[in-house]
Each structure stands twice: as C-alpha cells, then as structure tokens.
Design goal:
Oligomer: single chain
Helix content: 10-25%
Number of strands: 21
Structural class: alpha+beta
Radius of gyration: 27 Å
Largest sheet: 10 strands, mixed
Distance between the termini: 79 Å
C-alpha cells in the first residue's frame, strides 16, 4: 500500500488542467478536438515514471541489478567471447550491458529465486550463424503437457527483459514460454558468421525478427528425437549447423529445448511487440505450428515478409489470414507528441477489420493515454507509459491464448469483461479520476465466436460498452500482473484472470523437481577397437536427474572419432570422410545407438595413426556434459 499512498500524493491536484468533464463525456468517444482534454490525456504518458520507476525504492534495485547484469555480460565475453572459436560478440548492441532502461522491470528479476517458477537460459545458432540468447519459462507444478508461446521483441533498445512481465504471466498460467533476443539485441550476437557476417545487420532491416521468429520456433519444438539444427541462411544458403554442433559438443549450447517434455507442440502461440509485432503477424499466419497471435503495437494484415532466397516458398505474398489475432495498441505512437486534431477513430483497427471480414476471430484494444512502451517495460523516464497499460496488456494477452490455445470457457468471460471500463487503480492516478482504460480517440473492438456455438460476440466500442461486455467475476477489480506472478510455484494465483490450474491439456506432472545435472557417459575400454577396417566403440551412460529415486533420462549419446594430427584433430564425418584439422575440443560428434548402454560402429578403411575417441550424452532436459575426463575420452592407435 505504500506505493499507492505515494501515487496518490504525486497525483493529488496534478493534471487538473481543465474542469472535469461530465460522466457522459468521460464515457463517450470524442466528437470534437478539446485541447484541455488532450493535455490531460497526454499527461497520462508520465504515469509509470512518476508513480513507480522514479521512486527511490525502485531506483535503488534498478542500479544494483544493472551493475550485476553488466558484470554478467563481461563474464560471458571472458568465457565465451570473440577470442574463442565460434565465440559470442554482443559488444555492438545498444542494450548489451542490460543497465538502466535496458534492465526491464527489476521487480521480476528474482522470480525463480523466490520460488515463483523456473527459468532456464538457452542459446542456439541462427540460420545466419549468429548466436541467439534466450530463456525458457515454466512452473514446476502443472500439467504434464502445456501449450507454449514464443515472444519476439521490438527493435533497438528492446532486450528480452522488457517482456518478462508477459513471460511470467503466461508461465504462471500453465504455459511454456520462450523469450529471446533477436540478433543485435541484448546478449545475442551483433553479427552473423562467416559469409553471413553482415546478414541481419543492422537488425532494424527486419530479417532478424522474421527469420529469427522462425528459428526460435524451430528451437522451441526441438527435442531428443529431433535436436535443433539451423536452417540454411536465407541470403547465402550457408549451413551453420557445424557451429551449432560445435557449441553443443563443448556444452555452450543445449542440443534442444530443455523444457521440451512439457511442451504440447500442437498448441503454440506467438506474441510480439513493435517490429516483433510485424514479424508475428506474418509468421503466425504462414507457419502451421502456430494457432494464435497477439501483436503489441500493433497487429498487421501482412502481405509479405523479407525475401528468403534459399527458401522462397516459405515467404508467400498475401498469405491466407486464418489464425485468430489480437492487436494491443495505444493513443500515441513511438515518441509521438500531443495531438493537435482528432485522429481517424478507426486508424488503429484496420488489420482487425480485415480479419473480421474473413470471419477470423480478432480484436483491437487501444489504451487511453498509452504509448508504444505499454508492452515493453523500459524503466527510464524518457520512454513514457501509463501506469496500468502493462496490466491491461497482461490480462488480455493471457485471456487470448487461454481462449485459442486452451479453449478455456473462463477465457471468454475474461475477454468480454467490463473491468477496464472502470479500473480503480487507473482512476486513482488519473487527472479527472477516469478509470476507463479504453481510448476516447480510437475505437477498441472485439469480434470472436462464442465457445458454446451461439454465434459471434462483437462489440465495436468497448469504451462505451455493449450488451455483451459484462462483469467477469474472475478476479478483484484491482487485479495486476505483479501479484499474479509473485505467488508460490504450485498454487493458483489468487488474482489470476482465469484459473491457472489444472489445464485441460493433460494430467498433472508426477514430479515437480528440476533436473540440473548433465548425464555422464563412459567408454568401455575392453569393448572398444580401432583398426584399419573400422571402429567399434561401446559404453554406458547414466543421468542422476531428479525423477524417482533421482533417476533421469538419457536422451541421446554421441561419439567423436578423430585422427590426431599434431595438436589438432580431423573428425570422422557422417559420410565416412575426415574433416579438416581443427582444435580437438571442437571435434564433430555423431549419434550412437542406444542410451544407457550404447554402441557406435563405423566400417571403412582407416589410415594409420593416433586416434582420439570421445563420448558425450544429452539428457531429456537438453543438458550435455563436455567430453573431457578419462572415462569419456580414449586415445588409440591404428598400426
């Protein structure tokens, strides 16, 4: 309550730039331009800063966490920087230090440490060879199989932390969520690799968001049976799979999504903001793996995406629009100043109207006084936003995915609620105590099919209300995403817009532990031979994991056979030939047969010389132990 006392103190008597309008005028759409109203409306863009991020008890952790993240970035570059083969390099990224406005909402930084859920950092190689950084989010308790959502950032100053409010909201609601930094953002590489070094640079040209969303989906659905492998580069056709394989081999990248066992790949949604909104509006419609879309500032009706020369069939022009898509947007565009005339009230909903004309479920919601940063939490006063826009976004994006990925009946009530027409916390900081969160300049609309088959639920003016917009009865009137995500793992958030557990998608998981140990693989020396006629390697693997009595699951075993040339190694490749000499730590690994008891056999004439045999195993969580100790590496000679 301390924060809200300060909020009221800050706003008491402020923003009273003109006499309060009548109740009817506060409800209805503007019919003529009123400078006094516009000044009050534009003043709302400073609410987040004045009521939250500029307060001392927010600034102190912001600086502390920013310094810690800067140190983390420095450590990453020392351990896995450009000095290493296939090392990372994000020095050219504006938010590579993750400080100040790049830190995101610091109230969410300790989510896992406080026992609210679980999150795993991940890395993968994009199709142009850049190393992409991300996190996978979930809760320990919940269904054995869950729908998933991939979140695509905006551009420039938009690292994944800006969207953790959405990731944690969805994870607490029973989703597996992937957040990631497109190339040129956060901890992802600034440049591509080799022939594709300039591909996707600068990132604002769009390719890292469109190509990157597809790559992120590829990683998200990867698993032990189909480990992640990057697609060929769109611009040169180069295969950067060897980089991904090399980084997996030495433990820098996971082989696949560590939470793959939780993910129901038949129920996937996309969420994007700004340039990311354009990407998900297009990719979501053309990718058969995607079932629902939410675009934050704003939804597009796509006609095309960046050309992919190596796979033009993946980028059709004027794709069919069939997926339900919601647009969340605001009164003010990126760094827009106060208005001087009435705008077109339908200007923000053109994509939604096109979907409605095709009979596709859709909506377009416009936050009163909102800015481009309602859906991207930047704790810097220059990046203005309202106080409650973030909560409205969280409510509706959650409800949209619950409706179209879970088919939850309560989601329909959440979407057709009237709560945002009279929000008490919005009224508390508003200059004329208006709690209606919907714009008076632009229409907010909803057009969806009723779950019970009774036809369509449509409202073209959510601010004024419709007969279909009613109380939801799902949560307190002052619901906020922060309270919802700060509940202990395994409990339903008391403020959740829709009951988070259980999910109709599957039974509850039997175990809520988290596997943190990589498996151990061993070569059985007495059953391993290398001769002029071929190689046979046998051994065992085990994973302590955290299942019953600590038993884990070994998903795949890989073996490297390399001919030693001086201090370097030439690795046996899948086609039976040996690759060029490279550091032995970057040896190529090939799949073995079996898991806990495995074998690797290759027939063919081998040259005389010294050979290095190595083995590594990957568990069901995607963890790989680097082949480095005596039991996992053997030296043999062919005479």
């Amino acid at each position: 309550m301390g924060t809200w006392r300060r909020v009221l103190a800050v706003f008491a008597g402020a923003m009273m730039l003109a006499a309060a309008p009548s109740a009817q005028a506060q409800t209805e759409m503007r019919q003529s331009f009123d400078l006094g109203y516009e000044l009050r409306n534009f003043a709302k863009t400073n609410e987040r800063a004045l009521a939250l991020t500029l307060l001392p008890d927010y600034q102190v952790p912001l600086r502390t966490i920013g310094l810690r993240k800067q140190a983390e970035g420095t450590q990453i570059l020392l351990e896995d920087g450009p000095g290493r083969p296939f090392g990372r390099n994000f020095l050219g990224n504006l938010c590579g230090n993750h400080m100040d406005g790049c830190a995101g909402d610091v109230r969410l930084d300790d989510w896992e440490a406080q026992g609210h859920g679980t999150v795993e950092p991940v890395l993968w190689t994009a199709r142009n060879g850049s190393t992409i950084s991300g996190h996978v989010w979930a809760t320990k308790a919940g269904p054995a199989k869950r729908p998933g959502v991939v979140i695509t950032n905006g551009s420039v100053q938009a690292p994944e932390e800006l969207y953790w409010f959405a990731a944690q909201t969805l994870a607490k609601a029973g989703y597996v969520v992937l957040t990631w930094d497109p190339q040129g953002q956060g901890y992802s590489d600034t440049f591509g690799e080799g022939a594709d070094a300039r591909d996707g640079f600068p990132s604002q040209e769009g390719r890292p968001f469109f190509d990157g969303t597809e790559d992120a989906l590829d990683f998200f659905v990867s698993g032990p049976a189909a480990p992640y492998r990057p697609r060929p580069s769109c611009t040169t056709g180069t295969d950067h799979g060897p980089k991904q394989q090399a980084r997996v081999a030495d433990g820098r990248n996971p082989a696949f999504n560590p939470y793959h066992a939780l993910l129901d790949t038949s129920r996937i949604g996309l969420l994007g903001q700004s340039l990311g909104a354009g990407a998900v509006s297009y990719v979501g419609q053309i990718d058969p793996r995607v079932s629902a879309i939410v675009a934050m500032d704003n939804l597009r009706a796509p006609t095309s995406g960046p050309v992919c020369a190596s796979a033009p069939q993946t980028r059709p022009k004027d794709p069919p629009l069939t997926k339900p898509a919601l647009g969340l947007t605001n009164d003010y565009a990126l760094f827009e100043q106060a208005k001087t005339k009435l705008p077109d009230p339908r200007a923000k909903q053109q994509a939604s109207e096109k979907l409605s004309a095709l009979g596709v479920d859709t909506g377009s919601l416009v936050v009163r006084g909102g800015t481009h940063f309602e859906g991207a939490f930047i704790p810097n006063a220059a990046f203005t936003a309202t106080l409650r826009g973030n909560d409205l976004y969280a409510w509706y994006l959650r409800a949209w995915f619950d409706r179209y990925l879970k088919g939850a009946p309560a989601a329909e009530r959440a979407l057709t609620t009237d709560r945002w027409r009279a929000d008490p916390l919005a009224a508390a900081v508003d200059g004329v105590r208006d709690g209606n969160q919907f714009s008076q300049y632009y229409f907010s609309r909803l057009d969806i099919a009723a779950l019970d088959g009774r036809g369509r639920i449509a409202c073209e003016n959510l601010r004024d209300g419709c007969a279909t917009i009613t109380p939801d009865g799902l949560a307190p009137r002052d619901w906020g995403f922060l309270r919802a995500v700060k509940t202990p793992d395994g409990t339903t958030a008391p403020d959740a817009p829709v009951d988070a557990l259980p999910d109709a998608g599957g039974p509850r998981a039997a175990s809520s532990c988290r596997d943190t140990r990589a498996p151990v693989a061993r070569i059985t020396a007495s059953r391993t031979t290398v001769t002029r006629r071929g190689v046979t390697v046998r051994g065992t693997a085990r994973d302590r994991g955290c299942g019953p009595r600590g038993a884990g699951t070994v998903a795949i075993v890989r073996v490297s056979v390399a001919r030693v040339v001086g201090s370097r190694c030439r690795s046996l490749r899948q086609n039976g030939s040996f690759g060029p000499a490279a550091p032995c730590a970057r040896a190529t690994f090939l799949p073995a047969t079996g898991t806990t008891s495995w074998r690797f056999v290759r027939r063919g004439r081998l040259p005389r010389g010294s050979y290095r045999i190595a083995v590594q195993a990957t568990d069901a969580a995607g963890r790989t132990r680097r082949a480095a100790d005596r039991g996992s590496v053997r030296r043999l000679r062919v005479r």
